[in-house]
Amino acid sequence: MLIEWSDSFVLGVERMDETHREFVAQLNALGEISDAAMLERLESFIAHTEAHFAQENRWMTDAGFPMIHCHLEEHEGVLSIMREVRGMVADGRFELGRVLVRELAPWFTNHAATMDTTLALFIQTQGFDTETLPA
User: Fold this and answer.
1) CATH number at residue 34
2) pTM attached to this predicted model
3) Domain total for the chain?
């Protein structure tokens, strides 16, 4: 297991917490996947991450989050790397997929503790409603 879910990841925005639980579960599953199944699972994980980041990006835009630019840039950087590695895995370079998965674990832990914590606090203090917005 790459990341063990704990209460320290709970940020108090239910949809964000749910998406983060899914991210952690999928990342952990990727950490145990065979080479034969890696490309399909990685593609699914990338699609989940794109939706995850798009959701947060919409919240930041709609809520007027003041630190949006650095958060957006980090999302785009991670997605860019994931897509690049996806191409390498498609070429049979499975070890690079495994490196990506291992490196995403500490990245997520840090991102959730810093950028996402700040976003969650902003959402809560502004009374921004994430529950009735489209996913």
Assistant:
1) 1.20.120.50
2) 0.94
3) 1
Please report the pLDDT score of residue 131 as a whole number.
Answer: 82
d(CA 135, CA 52): 9
* Structural domain for 17, as ranges: 13-125
What is the amino acid identity at position 49?
A: T
The three-point CA angle 132-115-52 to 5° equals: 45
Candidates 6, 49, 12, 22; CA nearest to 131 is 12
The pLDDT score that the predictor gives to residue 14 is 95
Q: Is 131 domain-assigned? A: no
Tokens standing for residue 19: 């998406």
Question: Is pLDDT at 132 greater than 90 in this prediction?
Answer: no
Structure tokens at 4: 């063990």
Entry field: residues in the chain: 135
Which of 119, 121, 125, 127 is closest to 59 using CA atoms?
119
Q: Is the separation of the CB atoms in 50 and 26 below 8 Å?
A: no
Q: Note whether residue 21 is domain-resident.
A: yes
Residue 39 lies in a domain: yes
Please report whether residue 7 resides in a domain. no
- Residue 97 DSSP code: H
